[in-house]
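Case study.
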Amino acid sequence: MDLKASDRFNINSQLEHLQAKYVGTGHADLSRFEWAVNIQRDSYASYIGHYPILAYFAVAENESIGRERYNFMQKMLLPCGLPPERDED
Amino acid sequence: MYLYSLTLQRPGGVVCATNGNFVGGKTQEIVVARGKTLDLLRPDESGKLQTLLSVEVFGAIRSLAQFRLTGSQKDYVVVGSDSGRLVILEYSRERNVFHKVHQETFGKSGCRRIVPGQFLAVDPKGRAAMVAACEKQKLVYVLNRDAAARLTISSPLEAHKSHTITYSVTGVDCGFDNPVFAAIELDYSEADIDPTGQAAADAQKHLTFYELDLGLNHVSRKWSEPVDNGANLLVTVPGGGDGPSGVLVCAENFVIYKNQGHPDVRAVIPRRADLPAERGVLVVSAATHRQKSMFFFLLQTEYGDIFRVTLEHEGDRVTELKIKYFDTIPVTSSMSVLKTGFLFAASEFGNHALYQFQAIGEAEDVEASSATLMETEEGFQPVFFQPRGLKNLVRIDQVESLMPIMDMRVMNLFEEETPQVFTLCGRGPRSSLRILRPGLAINEMAVSQLPGTPSAVWTVKKNVNDEFDAYIVVSFVNATLVLSIGETIEEVSDSGFLDTTPSLSVSLLGDDSLMQVHPNGIRHIREDGRINEWKTPGKKTIVKVGLNRLQVVIALSGGELIYFEMDMTGQLMEVEKHEMPGDVACLDIAPVPEGRHRSRFLAVGSYDNTIRILSLDPDDCMQILSVQSVSSPPESLLLLEVQASTGGEDGADHPASVFLNAGLQNGVLFRTVVDMVTGQLSDTRSRFLGLRAPKLFSATVRGRQAMLCLSSRPWLGYIHQGHFLLTPLSYETLEYAASFSSDQCAEGVVAVAGEALRIFTIERLGETFNETVVPLRYTPRKFVLQPRCKHLVIIESDQGAFTAEEREAARKECLEAAKMGENGNANNRQQMENGGGAGDDDEDDALSDEQYGYPKAESDKWVSCIRVLDPRTGNTTCLLELQENEAAFSLCTVNFHDKEYGTLLAVGTAKGLQFWPKRSLAAGFIHIYRFVEEGKSLELVHKTQVEGVPLTLCQYQGRLLAGIGSVLRLYDLGKRRLLRKCENKLFPNTIVSMHTYRDRIYVGDIQESFHYCKYRRDENQLYIFADDSVPRWLTASHHIDFDTMAGADKFGNIYFVRLPQDLSDEIEEDPTGGKIKWEQGKLNGAPNKMEEIVQFHVGDVVTCLQKASLIPGGGECVIYGTVMGSLGALLPFTSREDVDFFSHLEMHMRQEHPPLCGRDHMAFRSAYFPVKDVIDGDLCEQFPTLPPDLQRKIADELDRTPGEILKKLEDVRNKII
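After joint prediction, the assembly is written out as follows.
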């Protein structure tokens, strides 16, 4: 398949649009850390949304469900610890 | 294999709740979301919570809100779910359904990070609603009404902010100014790119006000200000003349009042004195009470303490915020204050409760205030308090909830007719063993001994207009006893009934006369005391009688029928005679239809296995209209009108139809529809009820006709939410019964059994199971059955709690401090066992753990016990509390091959287990116990240290298999410890389950599904020969057959995997047992892969699975229990025809009746993996709730009648329960 320049431009802009609209859409230069952060945030959001899972964790940790939900929300700030140092190039 | 999935017990846990006037009128109702179901509850006059409606929505409900348009009399419900849609529901009283008013799609389905649905807020004046996601997205919908006063909804207005986490959202009460919504937000964009961690440390939560400009139709960020970083919850403060407006921000340890242009008013939340310093205090639920003149807030902390928050204000300036200790109740997920003075507390775990307010916390108590807030160098000065007994609230009702079910087993330990379900439920001090029996619970009101063995009982009114019954008449072999009902029930002799003969029937005749039918005649007692007697001709005796209020038919010995009718003057006149071919087995006449003089149908059962319908019309009197042959002679007949329910509380439109019910001598109940015009019989259904021929009696349930069937156990047939249900009663065998109504008991039953007269009422209609509760000490983990003496061995463990002795010491100290003296110590033992599960006496117990929860210890402390319990009595015969932070996680019974000790108990424990920051432990142990005192007690044989947590134990070929972390190890019994025999370390993560069958071992990994292993004795090797290709986070597993395992994963799926037949044969035939192939494993896995044969999304975390049959002689199905406290069953279909029928019905139901909250049914059942070979019975069972024309349309497509479909649904349900 031969891509015209306009097509390529079009695909890029589509991708940009997707990245802006859907948090967590990947791109070619995605680092391991960014990927992991997205996965973790998605997971925490899913735990918060699925009440039975929240209850399952709450039983395991012997905490109240409300506390468990709060803990997961707090963890969404830095889900994988501090970001790595950036290479200058 | 095709399975039919059916929920047997709806989930008990509550996700969220909201209250309002949904029915319209003065009453207050509560809408409760239980995960996948939406319930409408209402407290009745006596303070009992009644369920008006319960709908399965096939989606996860995450948030609920209620709103009212100004000037309207009725509230709407807004539902935020995982459907990517906002749904507004209105309750329709006429049809008893939730009617979907609006359904607005805004995003993808599923619980996603940026798709709204997690939070909902409405403007207090009902002008707008905001729906928000955990991150970024917030949408505002404008609500209004059109010219016809219908609710309208605008297109969504965006209030997004990317890289922002939302913690809570609420509507701000600002009267009729532009609607404002408040949100707690946290921006993480800088923390994500700053490797030094400075940005993360500086990250600050903000309270942001969003204003909806109704004129411009636009949402703007109006105001944003930093707020305490522990903030987690917002509560609206009344405004617009009723209060100062603004919001309460609940944060860890603090409550802060905030409003635009107003300084913060902050107060600390009082702490329990015994709380470890490392722990904060977090508010988990809140409720607001509003009256015209005042308002206050009730905030509950994560420990269960409720605080009353009041605001001192002058106009809209708040001068002081006070937090006063109110009461302590079990931690709730949601609280609702009703205007009628009730507090509905939906517990996070365990039973929910309805409380009544005794006081509103005006009395003196521990109080923290913004005025006395002290800031020192270490932060704000805390305020301490000690929890105490309930002062302001009184519990008046509770709603049972099994949440969470930790383990379950179906067994017939008590050798009853049906097996019992043993479930371990609850958490911490509210844990219990609940024994569930299929059937309705009864409440026994009175039992009195009679002077002989009664054969029958009736109740009779003196006048048709009387509300209550006047007499109970009991017949013996040679006498009749008459009891009058008043304040007490006592024998009378002035009733006019003949007491020297047995009776065949006693009833009210006409409006106000009584009739007694005895073997030698009919005695008619007129209202003024005159007595007319009709005597049988010759030596014949009356053998059977059938009657209603105006008609009587008697059968004489030999088979002669004589028909009497009541004439205008109130005389009983003989109308017709008819000779039947043989003796009559039973008779019944349908009740007189409204506005008519007679019923047209007489049903006669004969010993030649036939039932005939005869006409009673004057034109064709005693003509046979139809004949039905049955499998066995009928014993009892009942013509029951299943009433047309054109709506009201009972839902679904049902055409009125008369059912002929016959109890046959072989124990089968036979039901068939009688055509109202021709008397033809059609649409027959039969069901085996028990070993004795069912005797049928009519009864009233909730003012409707119902049927009692007495076989070897009693059954009740009644209509519940549009379904006709035939459910067993959990009661002993009864001989004869009649409905009973008196001052004390409006809808009861009087029955005879043995030599006793029993009066009882039937409780909690619509429930599938009734429960017996045995309280436990800590969160139960697992249990096994001691095979010899049938005792249960239960392991319980809790993290972050004190041992019983430590708690005892602390309690003593506290009681002494409170100068309560010695009398508090009298019931120490009982307090250690945290009181009775359903007991109402804990209110006066000074510090019941069940109410207050265990005091929190540091998170690295563990408490645990091993308990031997006699399930018959509920008594604990042995309780071993583990010491020094040791906690039990697994157990099994094991018979070692040398048989020296007989059955031993193996318990796997861990010492000092910690999950954070990294999973670590001091040591793992396997304890071996011997049963002593005939299995009632345990004695430690020895204890073996292992390197990890033994999460699963299992007997295998006279040895013990243990799953310790990723190692599977085989142990033999030694004198002083267990001896390692063989091991395999090749499991991917952690072994959580093991089953054995013949020489195979089925191992479940926490993250990687099942692995099938074999043990080669000659080479002493354990090896994996097959595994699953899908990573599954196992939460439950069960062995189905040689090649098949059933499992459930953390995300709420149930699946079956099977090793293909040819592979299985190959392995079994291979002399190396597939071992050579094993050595060549592929891609780090086993050489053979299992196939997934069944897949189904339950929508709830399944914690236990078992293959069992719940009815005697019924097919086996897979029963599962979930975290939310629901029980369900998967029944394998036996014929291809049924599979076709139900899959087509399911398909039509999906099309014609999409789920209420907007989630696509197919997408829900395929949420993680595409659903495979499972038909959703819960959806099919919604068929009877459809309007009749839709039912007919679907039935036509399936080439059947709606009646046939209903029958099919009933049949398949009867195969399960």
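Observations recorded in class. Chain A has a mean pLDDT of 87. Chain A touches chain B through 37 residues (CB under 8 Å). We will return to this complex in the next lecture.
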